[in-house]
Amino acid sequence: MTGSTANLFRVKRSALLVTVGCLLLLPGSTGAASVWFVSEGKPVAVERNVATIEQSVRQLLAGPTSAEQARGLRTAVPRASTLRSVTVRHRVVTVDLGLRFAAGRDPEALRARIGQLVRTVRGVPGVRAVRILIEGGTPVGLFPGYDLRRPVAAANDPVVHAPTTRDVQQRLVDLGFMAATGLTGAVDTQTSTAVLGFQKWAGLYRDGSLGEETVAALGRATRPEPKWHADGRRIEVQLRRQLALLIQDDKVVRAVHISSGAYGKTPTGSFRVYRKERYSWSVPFKVWLPWASYFSGGVAFHEFGSVPTYAASHGCVRVNHYDAAVLFGFAEMGTPVDVFDEAAS
Amino acid sequence: MTSQGAVRALAGGLGVVVGLVGCAIVTALVLVSLGLPAASRAEDSPAPDASPPPPPSVLVVALSLGDPVLQAGIVRDGHIVYARGLEVEVARALAQRLGIPHVRLLYVPPGSRQLTAATRSWDVMLGAFRPSRSESSLADLSDPYLGTDQAVVLRHGLARPSALADLRTRALCAMRGSAAARAIDVGVAPVRRPMLPAKPERLLELIETGVCDAAIVDASSVGRFVAGHGARLGPIAARIAFGDGYVVSVTREGAVTAEQASTALSRMRADGTMHRLARAWLGIDPARLRLLE
């Protein structure tokens, strides 16, 4: 370290000590400060010109201004909460509040208001932790997620973040639209195929992309349910949705993105799988059909390279690459297959 | 006899009398200390058909706080200055039923030495606990006021189970290391290994998405578990018997007996007080859930 750098370091350190010293000597002293509110469940800071920590806390208790509320800012602190005192000792700020601050039973609101208070006070330079008192006493068990018997160093709000690709993939797996092998963390064709299946089920625009609407719908979706209820193993082909549901004991174990016969060429009704071929040669169309399970005459489930979002085949049920082997394994000989138009049935 | 002789004789007589009275007092004290004055004691003891003693004016209730729903509060200088929760309400209702006009709440932190102290400064304590042998010698337990049974939350679209056996073939899930996980092992013995996530958020996801057919959750907290997620979940279908329940621990030398506490709790159940308190604090009354057998 050169002499000038060392001097600069010493000057900076002295300045910091003076700042901290001022803070300790003048309890509650600060400058422009951040006051924390919430917006759509996330903490949001607003700048306020305040002279002391006490003023910061009072600004917090007062809540967002009308303009801030118009911007969507909210507070979890009950209206008319009162401040009894603010003291500072050894860089720990003790905030003593009135009983109203503990009002209500909603665990999220109770947790959020402590988060707001801790962020607001802890954001003041030099503050190490916040001790929270209610009516001069220690709250025990009143605020879920916080042990207020000792000073709090950091807010402990549940982390609210936009779902990652892996989160979305996990949801697709959980809901039965994708195999666990699709948990790659990257948006790939397997994910897009599964998204198409989900979009078909949820009645969304079928583009296979993880748009805002699709991600939001995934967040509130439940597992697909069969149209008909019965025990055992069976397959439902829903022609309007263009989905095949693999059902075991009345539970959909996989929802598969398919493409059936164009212009209603796939027959509706109740059938059974009667023939299975790992590779089946299609005589009329002169093409190999992998993973073929026949259930009505020459109509079969089989893998095909092109599985569009609409009915496009000559009558068979085209199955996407990622689900073809799964469906083939599921469709044992004699498995019932119900093909129907949801709107008509 | 001269006057001096008369005085001496009188003094001698008085001395004898004083001596005899003194002996009698000492003898009586000795007998009392030995516990022998049976004749006089028989008159002091209450008649068998006499009315019971009036209830004390204060019921001292020990609370460890720490649970936002069952018991939480504010502690100042070791005293509880404010408390709320189901168990706080149960304690107050209990005192009312026992004719005790005042309730004093005493803070006893969990793990405190006071819990195993030979003499205790409280009358009752509320909670789900199984006392140790040393504690058993100091306290009696009432009948449960709240069960520690486990609730069954179904996934969407699943038919309600009619018996415990219906759950055996289902995909079950519970929080890892919880009483619910033990209840699955002990009470259900499922065919498939249950899923035991570490976080409650994941447990909720598993049941929302139908990966699990049924989530097993402590019945006293199932109301909180389903709050705000009702549309994505099936019904809270039933409960599985598990554990000894939440009871009132009554100090032997305290103001009330375990029998009195049990009787009062029984009346609170009968007149709907317990149902009202459970609904208010837990969201549901676990006792009203059907018991799977």
Describe how the helices and strands are arranged.
The complex is a heterodimer of chains A (345) and B (293).
Chain A: H1 3-25, E1 32-39, E2 42-49, H2 53-62, H3 66-70, E3 83-89, E4 92-97, H4 107-122, E5 129-134, E6 138-140, H5 165-175, H6 189-202, H7 212-219, E7 233-238, E8 243-248, E9 251-259, E10 269-272, E11 275-282, E12 287-296, E13 299-303, E14 317-319, H8 321-330, E15 336-340
Parallel strand pairs in A: 4-5, 7-15, 13-14
Antiparallel strand pairs in A: 1-2, 3-4, 7-8, 8-9, 9-14, 10-15, 11-12, 12-13
Helix pairs in contact in A: 2-4
Chain B: H1 3-34, H2 38-44, E1 58-63, E2 72-76, E3 79-84, H3 86-97, E4 102-107, E5 124-127, H4 133-136, E6 139-141, E7 150-154, H5 165-168, E8 172-173, H6 179-188, H7 200-208, E9 214-218, H8 222-226, E10 236-240, E11 247-251, H9 258-270, H10 273-282, E12 291-292
Parallel strand pairs in B: 1-4, 1-5, 8-9, 10-12
Antiparallel strand pairs in B: 2-3, 5-11, 6-11, 7-9, 7-10
Question: How would you characterize this protein structure?
Answer:
The complex is a heterodimer of chains A (345) and B (293). Chain A is 28% helix and 27% strand. With 345 residues, chain A is of the alpha+beta class. In chain A, a hairpin with a 2-residue loop joins strand 3 and strand 4 (92-97). The longest helix of chain A is centred in the first third of the chain and has 23 residues, at 3-25. Chain B is an alpha/beta fold and 293 residues long. Chain B is elongated. Chain B contains ten helices and twelve strands. The model of chain B is unreliable at 1-14 and 26-46 (pLDDT under 50). The longest helix of chain B is centred in the first third of the chain and has 32 residues, at 3-34. Chain A binds chain B through residues 99, 102, 105, 107, 110, 134-144, 171, 174-176, 220-223, 225, 249-252, and chain B through 65-69, 71-76, 81-82, 84-85, 107, 155-159, 169, 205-206, 208-211, 213, 224, 232. Strand 6 (138-140) of chain A pairs antiparallel with strand 2 of chain B, so a sheet runs across the interface.
